[in-house]
Amino acid sequence: MGVSARRSRVHRFTCAGAAFAVGTLLLATFCATPAEAIPAFSRELKTECTTCHTIFPQLNEFGQAFEKNGFVWPGGVAKSKKVKVTQTEEERKSAEFINLSGIPNTLPLSASLGLTYRYDEDKEDNFDQKFYSAELFGAGTFGGDKIGFWFNESLGGQSGGPTGPSQVWFVANHPFGVPVHLKAGRLSPDLSLWKTTLNGRMLSMGANINSFLVTSAQSGVEISSFLGSRAIAVFGVNDRNNAVGKDADGKDLAVRSVNDFYGRVGVKFGGTDFHGKEPDVDLDKDSVWDYLSISLNAFGYSGSQSGPDHVNRDVTRFGAEAEVAYKKLLLMFGATRGENDTSKAAVEITALSAEVDYVFNPMFAVALRYDHLDVDGKDPRAVVTPGVIYAPFQSVKFRLSAAIDSNPTLAATGKADKTTTAQLSATLSF
Amino acid sequence: MNANRVRTAFFAAAALCLAAAPLAAADLKTVGSGDAMNFDPSGFREEMKSKFEIMRSKCVKCHTMERTIVAIKTGVAPISGQPFDRGATKAYGIKMLRKPDSDMNKDQVKAVVELMNYLLDEAAR
Fold it and tell me: Does residue B48 belong to any structural domain of this protein?
């Protein structure tokens, strides 16, 4: 590419970025109204989205405790009490059949619609890349909080739309009085401090390795338990259906079911504990722990994955994560080390990620992220991702971000080894 | 003679109690309804009135005052269903102190916690 052409593209990119920013700010100006919460938990529990989220879907400390307790409000108060207080006597009587039936008070369904416009400096038609997505999800509890459930399913959309892996699972909360949460179904392994491992995105970029991702949803069983109020242990087994090779005629052999094993241990210092209890802050004395919390996590995954030759080969992942939260600042670090057996030699993978978020208020946040992927120590790939998030309502979010991707392996194929993409996405949940 | 004095003192004390009772209940009067519901601070102790100004300006930033009024009058937090007592007022105060968008400092949180404790006492009278 010539220098002038490059400059022209840079100029166009700068103008486009500025236009997006101005557009977003204009939306910010005209859409600012009082926050309204709508999705399933908000309706069921009659509380606003920010009870559990900073800007959705990112969970705050209380939201993390709510999720880890199988969607039960930390504190363990029976649902019937809530109904008595928030409803009139007449409403309470009409709701009694719901309580006796042990079903949620409201239909526990929500939907999320997404629209993404993407700019790619290396595409001929830079701006003509639109992605849409629609996702249905439901979650809640049955039987007076004894059983929680979750499902999400894409209702359609285009590749590149922001939907997660389809999941359907149930969680038994303290079954038979045993203080554990037992989850079963098609689930994404709980290996991370966050909804997904910080390195997940980077590892998925290593498509040349294989499509294996520890967080992809599989049929499995998972058990988790709090160790005291500030530590958690999770162990799971999932069942992957993997091909085992071809016969002499080149036909696939019968698909064999293979079990993978995984686990994690997490610990939290400061902040709200896993039972949703606030730290004991002295209102007469200042301490750094008034606002500081540090979470640490270590995970491991051992399993197998069939490659392009349909042969099962071992896959291992080990990782560590850390989160530091102080007032409006959030720092996240993640490192994953893994090994994939191949038909030739084992491939070693290292992914490192760091992200800093600053939440100015429930409507506006900025984020900067750095990802690094190293496969067998050759030509490491690095991606820098700055982003701005604006949520005019608690259930509507706009995100403007860019990705500056340095990938030396592309140089060998004659492509530019450094690419810049930008995207503006809008998500609406209700 | 003595019996008459005792009787007179008894009736005087009873009349005083009867007169004072409605005043105490009137301390926790509210005005408006729904989203506009608020405490009527006219019957508050003098030092609580300045604390109410903090509550009035800070707490309604994220939720209605009705939520606080229901909690104080019933002794049960309306969303969680958990008891709303002196332990809970401090826990909620700390929760709001640590909430990134509350913009409340420790002195302000302490003042609001003291006010809620005072209101709980008044509601219990």
Answer: yes
Of B74, B95, B113, the CB nearest to A278: B95
Does residue A367 form part of some domain?
Answer: yes
Show the domain range for B105. Answer: 27-124
Answer yes or no: is A102 within a domain: no
Q: How far apart are CA A363 and CA A98, in angstroms?
A: 36
B18 inside domain: no
- Tokens for A222? 């998972």
Q: Which of B80, B96, B112 to mutate to test the interface with A (most CBs of A within 10 A)?
A: B80
Q: Which two tokens stand for residue A368?
A: 């900067």
Instruction: Rank A194-208, A265-279, A308-322 by mean pLDDT and report only the highest.
Output: A265-279
Whether residue B15 is contained in a domain is answered as no
Inter-residue long-range contacts of B22-31, CB under 8 Å, 24+ positions, other chains counted: B24/B122, B24/B125, B25/B125, B27/B122, B27/B125, B28/B72, B28/B73, B28/B119, B28/B122, B28/B123, B30/B69
What is the average per-residue pLDDT within A144-156? Answer: 87
Beta bridge partners of A386: A368
Residue A187 lies in a domain: yes
The angle that helices B106-124 and B65-74 make with each other, rounded to 10 degrees, is 40
CA A338/CA A136 separation, integer angstroms: 33
Give the pLDDT of residue A88.
64
How many Cβ pairs closer than 8 A exist between chain A and B? Answer: 67
Give me the domain span that covers residue A138. Answer: 3-76+108-429
- What pTM did the predictor assign? 0.80
CA distance A185 to A165: 13
Query: Cβ of A278 and B80 within 8 Å?
Result: no
Band of residue B100 on the pLDDT scale cut at 50, 70, 90: confident
| Cα–Cα distance for residue pair A363/A393, rounded to 1 Å | 7
Q: Are A196 and A227 in contact (CB under 8 A)?
A: no
Reference A261, options A207, A223, A204, A206; nearest CA is A223
CATH code of the domain containing A357? 2.40.160.10
Cβ pair A50:B74 closer than 8 A: no
| Domain total of chain B | 1
| Total of domains in chain A | 1
Asked if residue B10 belongs to a domain, the reply is no
User: Cβ distance A156 to A172 under 8 Å?
Assistant: no
